[in-house]
UDP-N-acetyl-D-mannosamine dehydrogenase
Amino acid sequence: MHRSEKVCVIGLGYVGLTLAVALAKVGYQVIGIEKNQAIVNLTNDGTPHFAETGLSALLSQVINSQNFFAVQDLKDHKPCGTYIITVGTPLNQNGIARLDMIEAATRQVADAMPDEALIILRSTVKIGTTRNVVSPILNESGKKFEIAMCPERTLEGNAMKELHELPQIVGADSECTRLSAAKIFHKLTSSVIQVQGPEAAEAIKLIDNTYRDVQFAFSNEVARLCDAFNLNAFEIISAGKLGYSRTNVPLPGPVGGPCLEKDPHILLESAETKDIDLEITRASRLVNERLPSETAKTIKKELMNRGIEGQLKIAILGMAFKGVPETDDLRGSMSTKILEELRSLFPRANFMIFDPIIDVITLRDYFSNDLVCDNIWDAVRGSSLVVIANNHPKFRSIPPNAIFQLMQPNGIIYDYWNHHSNSIDRAFSNRYLALGSLWRNENA
């Protein structure tokens, strides 16, 4: 079947913009649809609206080559051969993935698509959404179409590289449709994996991310155990897997972000449609979601034991949901939840905010009740508590001694990522606490 090389990507968030730019770079004529006019303007000016390694230069290149442009809707534009839906599916207040943006995007596609168009769903969705939500809306148009599910799996901060390296999953009912979708992605990567039916592709994305969530939950359980026994989780986990290939426990830390905080819930929701309760998945989410509350209470206890109370100055370092690869994404950030828990326990405290990547204006808009600093030294100066909340390499490169010298004399660092657990100076060891490594305080 002959199909136009013109591709329409609906939704220019993290998933959509990186994919659109990658497709334009390999020769497709790409239209990006984004309802936010400010994002449309930035995109057409060659400026990404989020930080992503390599994206800025590539976006400018494909805009200048006229292989890519962004608009608010598809009206007055010629039909495309392929439509890729990449809009978000955030959880609602009840922990259920919203489908309103999927439905709206699908209706837009149904109105614009020609006969025989290929529709690809790339958003993360409950198992059965391609067949039971997207296809019926497209069918209402009376037009003929092919539909496939091809989930996004890139790592923020490494997307432009991984779009060309990671295997692309293609799920559809017919071999003809699978081949049509595979042809799109073969221009990006030589590795395309075809699976039977869209449900298989939907499940792969959910299972992959839930598996990671379960792994991290176990490491956070280890941290709880080590704290209780005055052991060092960093030492135990590192020593246990050294030269021992059957064990690869990750180090503990806050688990969040736009995928890991959401996808296990969508998998649970999928299972519930078949009256199945995924006990391990549910328990893992419980462990990871209660970590901010548990650790905030631990921090308060440590401060009270040292006689540090009253109107404290508290510095929170690292507000993006992760630091490696670095990103400016605040969606699902556990740092914000840690801040909320500490604020509830220390209502009189003054909070100082710093992030090495997120620009100060964005931080000030997001954390309007707190003092945002443009350097780490202003954030920690005079503080009684410094919380290292994400794993950006900058926090590993700064000696804790330098931070301690600016803090209150009896102040403490609480490090969620064990950046310095194996290198802290003995003189400061009773003031450096890390997740799963409270033993330093007990034995100092």
